[in-house]
């Protein structure tokens, strides 16, 4: 794959991610904060962006979404063969939730208020 194709794909992924983020924020801000791993202030800003602003933001040469699975042991644990697929999904959710809470604590980001 050429460098131009990679950049085009990154732009498309970024725009898709931002559009999805806006949709999740519109549906439920607390769930959006959890799933996107960002604070309320960032959610508010993303939700206010126009389509042209989303396109401009998505046109960066770096992925704007963060890969939360940054530990080889966690990846191996979550991708190993499981007899019960539903339990594997629950386990993945628990692992990601734990990582998100740790990152909130490490960055001292306040969780959304009730």
Automatic annotation (TrEMBL):
Function noted in UniProt: Functions in complex with FlhC as a master transcriptional regulator that regulates transcription of several flagellar and non-flagellar operons by binding to their promoter region. Activates expression of class 2 flagellar genes, including fliA, which is a flagellum-specific sigma factor that turns on the class 3 genes. Also regulates genes whose products function in a variety of physiological pathways.
Keywords: Activator, Bacterial flagellum biogenesis, Cell projection, Cilium, Cytoplasm, Disulfide bond, DNA-binding, Flagellum, Transcription, Transcription regulation
GO molecular function per UniProt: DNA binding
This protein's domain notes: The C-terminal region contains a putative helix-turn-helix (HTH) motif, suggesting that this region may bind DNA.
Name of protein: Flagellar transcriptional regulator FlhD
Keyword Disulfide bond: yes
Main location class: cytoplasm
NCBIfam families for this protein: PRK02909.1-1
Gene3D superfamilies: Flagellar transcriptional activator FlhD (1.10.4000.10)
Statement: the UniProt record of this protein carries the keyword Repeat: no
Coiled coil: none
GO process annotations (BP): bacterial-type flagellum assembly; positive regulation of DNA-templated transcription; regulation of bacterial-type flagellum assembly
InterPro entries: Flagellar_FlhD (IPR023559), FlhD_sf (IPR036194)
GO cellular component, one term: cytoplasm
Origin: domain of life: Bacteria
Subunit structure: Homodimer; disulfide-linked. Forms a heterohexamer composed of two FlhC and four FlhD subunits. Each FlhC binds a FlhD dimer, forming a heterotrimer, and a hexamer assembles by dimerization of two heterotrimers.
Subcellular location(s) of the protein: Cytoplasm
Family: Belongs to the FlhD family.
